[in-house]
Amino acid sequence: MKCVRCKAKGIIYLKRHNAAFCQDCFLYYYKNQVKKNIKRYKMFDKKDKILVVISGGKDSMALWHVLANEGYSVTGMYINLGIGQYSDKSQQVVESFAQKSGLELIVKDIKKEYGLDIYKLSKLLKRSTCSICGSIKRYLFNKVAYDGGFSVVATGHNLDDEAATLLGNVLSWEEGYLARQSPVLESTHQKLVKKVKPLYTLTERENLFYVLINKIEFLHDECPHATGARSILYKEVLNRLEEESPGTKQRFITSFLEKGRKHFQDVYEKIELKECISCGQVTTTEICSFCRFAQILKQNKEV
Ligand code: SF4
Ligand code: ZN
């Protein structure tokens, strides 16, 4: 198949667009998608100080690279979550990329800096490691951004992630989560920093092409806790639908954003926000979950 843009030999075929691209035109398409998403949702501009959340996987590495190359003011933020070899390897990949590319990076280590242990917490609270881990990450994204004077936090969520999350939320009509599912979450409190997802229309496969073409090192392994997660099942189901009907994932997301999300807007606006009595960060309870985790571990040192 020929490249739809320059008619050279196409090397990447994107079924949902019924289009093939050569290497250069794929990069043009990719950057164009990112630029369109930033513009469509007024995510940020060149004056903004952007904190990019980096896990070391292909999506976040692609995001960091593309934004830096487009001239945005970006700083990476990596959180070592204490997940054995996975955390050690991903930290190495991220630090090495930052060093080679001359990019700024903030590293946080939840064990060393805050004494937190997701495994102990999971056992004590009888909650999954992912739910503990998710709360800690969300807290730190916002805290680091707020304390560092960043105007926006960008994450590498892709189209596959967004469609799988939406499917999960729709299946159980999670109104609160549906209200919050958007490529941009404006700040609703002076201590909450705006959150954006500039890659929400690009697939995992497209991000993979982007990092391979640009020879960006990334961690191939998934977090060991990702296997068996419900989101993986949703991704498989959606892949099956996409195979039969290309463009399903994108239609699912765009039609939800255009027609569905507004029905949950009042749920979002009704969430009452407070400031944690211990750390001052925004929470819906007296004391935020991050401070509660630290307290629980202090009280249960022997676990
Ligand atoms: Fe954390 Fe779960 Fe994601 Fe692993 S898969 S990084 S434990 S949320
Ligand atoms: Zn707190």
Automatic annotation (TrEMBL):
InterPro entries: Ncs6/Tuc1/Ctu1, Rossmann-like_a/b/a_fold, TilS/TtcA_N, tRNA_thiolation_TtcA_Ctu1, TtuA-like_LIM_N. Residues 49-222 form the tRNA(Ile)-lysidine/2-thiocytidine synthase N-terminal domain. It comes from the Bacteria. Keywords: Transferase. CDD domains: TtuA-like. Residues 2-27 form the 2-thiouridine synthetase TtuA-like N-terminal LIM domain. This is tRNA(Ile)-lysidine synthetase.
